[in-house]
Amino acid sequence: MSERSFADALLRPKAVAVYGASGDPNKNTGRPQRFLKTHGYTGRVVPINPNRAEVQGESAYPKLTDAPPGVEHALIMVPKAAVLAAVEDCAAAGVRVASIYTDGFAETGAAGVAEQQKIVAAARARGMRIIGPNSMGIIDLNTSMTLSINAILEMENLPAGRLGVISQSGSLLGALMSRGAARGMGFSSLLSIGNEADLGVGELVDVLVDEENTDAILLFLEGIRDAQALGRAARRAHAVGKPVIVYKLGRSDVGRELAVSHSGAVAGPDAAIDALLKHHGIMRVDMMEALLELPGLALGSKTVGGNRVAVVTTTGGGAAMVVDRLGAAGMELVPAPERLHVKFAEFGLSLGNGRLIDLTMAGTREGVYGAALEILLTDDNIDAVVAVVGSSGQFHPELAVAPIVDAPKTGKPLAAFIAPNAPESLARLAEGGVAAFRTPEACADAVRALLQHQPPAPETQISPPKVSAVGAGASETLDEAASRQVLMDLGIAVSASIVLAGPEAEIPSDIAYPVAAKVVSPDLPHKTEAGAVALGLQNAAGLKQAMSAIWQSAAAYAPAAKLEGILVEPMIDALAEVLLGYRLDAEAGPVVVVGMGGVLTEIYEDAAVRPAPVDDAGARAMIEEVKGLAVIRGYRNLPMGDVGALAAAVAAMSRLAMVQTPRIVEAEINPLMVQGEGNGVIAVDALVRLGA
After folding, report:
1. What is the domain range of residue 317?
2. Number of domain units in the chain
3. What global pTM score does this model have?
4. 234-256 pLDDT, tens per residue?
């Protein structure tokens, strides 16, 4: 089937079936049929109920294969044990897509995963696609197609609009529609996707990209199951001018405890998600109100980027809250430009020089607020303008917001924050196409997300390296000797080293001191914590004593650990110690991490993260992003480090993303020693973990 016919079946079906349809219109299983009728769906509705000949005035059938043909979309609301049979029935009847409301599948564990896979296989065998399980259904307000149990459909006259929504949470769809309706904001298509057993976020974003009545795509995500599909779809959306905006759960650090490497802790799961979204040009917000209002702000802005924001107000306190939030988000607050001071002098007024442009009561004089907005919106040194309205917005809405609505449409972002509870002012702003916010936090969140947004980064085309890891294919952590071999396969220089059999081994006479010694064990990823490292050993006697001490310490720290030997390497001086890591993130996919190295890595949390692989330019941008690495960039006349060699190592490490066998899920150098300019970088520690 063509992509277009699939979109028609999904959003504009000529006929729908409701499995498990109830004659009681107030039950969950009775709602969809009632909603379709009350909202004006003009297609045919086929109830499937083996116990009834009629449901809510429509002829019912035991199976869809018993009914007249032509159904394109089915909603399945039967008990879990009957879902597979229902899927097989509607697939046999030629249904193009089935939304499954029933729960109890993959979210319950391994057995549920297996049952879910059977359902998908049965559908795919006949060319049918699945949404869900755990889906509350599909809504398309432009065609009154309300094949959903969502209680928000109890509302009458829900406004149709041009915002598409895809949500892993069905109840959040209702919350967004409710909040949108309160703003007079309409939606086009709303898709509750549940478990994503078959159709996922990426494919469905692709559908909305091609929908002529959708201008922006909003996502509410609890997790990302297919980062590559989402990235491809977001790039298509950007190409046609449709912003993709996401509210993604998972800002907390709970996932850090699962990381083996320091890079997993420094660049936790959410940092990887941020990097992924930025890489593909997806805007991320932290507040639901920002999710709703950012589309209007983005669609009305011809230019984005920068961080210079002018905040103009007649209410100092209300605006100060916005200024505070914008400053915390890294925005630069711009004081009144000279042109504005000159204009105010013409009015016989004066302005302060602070970073908040407070017009005070003068702003209520005719022409003053409008003149200020015109100057700010046409100033090349300002990237966005926020207009803050005080109590006049509640008591004199027609006067308070008129200058904002009438402000020149320059293509520069203009947002409004209304400090009091002023629904009429908010409605007037919405009608005038101005993004209006009820809280300073949401206003700052949306402005920050828009200004920090960048087009999708170019995709890096790199040939895969050849890596011959010991134990390839196994699920294990390699010991340091094997991990070093992986680095050498990538072309990353490692320090010269020898591995002695244990603390009683004879020490070669040709060792050049000082040296470091560490226990070799796949079971000790963090040797410092185990007391399994000794540094700065000046002679053979000191080395012999240290070998015994670190061996005993490692055995005491992890009695079950497999101790394979002691690695001895020269002490190396460097301008900086760097952490360089690679990780196969469960949601974001392969990422590369650069940060400050050494034992204090996790304290500073100063790291840059990118989807892997990266090229030399991408690697250099990462190095520039790490504040602590200013010491190798000539900061305050310090000696220059070999940034070129470091960038080459970053790019080399990132190529692990291209390796299929062995499957490397984590790799890290900590530290990577950065020498002076022209002298390269040297890895003095290595950790590689394989996955099954």
Report:
1. 291-452
2. 4
3. 0.92
4. 999 999 999 999 999 877 655 43
